[in-house]
Amino acid sequence: MRKMTLLCCLILGGCAVLWTALAAGTAADPLITVSYARQIYNAAVERSAELRADALVSQKTEELQSALEAAVADRVAQRVADSVAQSVRQNAELSAGRSWTELTLAQGDVVTGPAGAGIMLTSGSAATTGTAELIDITNGRTLAIGVVASPSTYYMVPVDQGAGLRVTSAAATVRVRDGAAAARAQAALYEDEADRLNAVGLFRGSNYGYELTRRPTRQESLIMLIRLLGEEQAALAYTGQSTFTDLTGWPDGIRYVAYGQHMGYTNGMTATEFSQQTPADANMYCTYVLRALGYNDARGDFSYRQAAQKAIEVGLLTDAQYAQLQTTGLLRDHMALISYNALWARCSGSVQTLGERLVERGVVTQAQLDSIRR
Q1: What pLDDT is recorded for position 16?
Q2: Cα angle value 202/204/206 (rounded, 5°)
Q3: Based on the domain organization, do 176 and 323 belong to the same domain?
Q4: Residues 363 and 287 both lie in one domain
Q5: Main-chain dihedrals φ then ψ at residue 206, nearest 5 degrees
């Protein structure tokens, strides 16, 4: 019907043009005969109208077809996604019945393994740790570093020894499979130093205590630097914005990073990523403390790669402590030790110690400093 309506309109338009042509002659001497007009022009006009109508109908048909195809594609994609999610859940349910080994663990113990290894917390509490997110097979998602794990949830390690769970409660039971295993936490060696720093507000724990046997994050290391510089209140009052786009979580933690970047104390892993939950290493933390003491790596006082060795030179570590640190990697335990030793180390180019400088800046009192000296 629509095509016929278009056809009639176009034919009538063509007839109007024809009448104009006929009016140009006379009845006695017409320019063209009526029969010729009917034979030639009417047929041409009708054919032209048909072609134009066909084109319009074809265009609308193609538009409708494209819309239908898009709608069908969306439905298919959703069905595929639903099917994948269902398969993941079914795989988790089936896997839960396969062979698992149950481990009884203590606070600070870490469970990880090769890519594909399975981990499931069954009692107690634990948080994700490592350099990569754990895959939550049960719920079909990933779990970011530092997030509390859910009980009876099947987690998979995505990268060889790159992710796992760290026990945060006094005790916990964890089921493992496919090569996952536990690394027992090393006993804390420098709890006394942590206590002394805590007494004057220079070292704090988390909801789980000091957590001396776990690795500190990049964010925690930067916070410790800011405290040793006596600038914690300035950092907490800072309202500027960081250019790092990956900062999440604790609002004060974000302020510390934004302030540290503003003051030039830290760089990101890239121009836009700070990677606040990535573990810090010994050279990174020693670099921070050496800067607090006034040493300038940009000026050539030391190099980042040799920062831990420079720390021996200025009295932050002994040779034996450095050797131990090389074996275990930087722990919060070592961070407390290095920070405590820094209080009694002389600042670069000065006879004044860092502790004396903090007294001068009003961060601690002389009485407080004397109270924590051995």
Answers
A1: 43
A2: 165
A3: no
A4: yes
A5: -115, -165
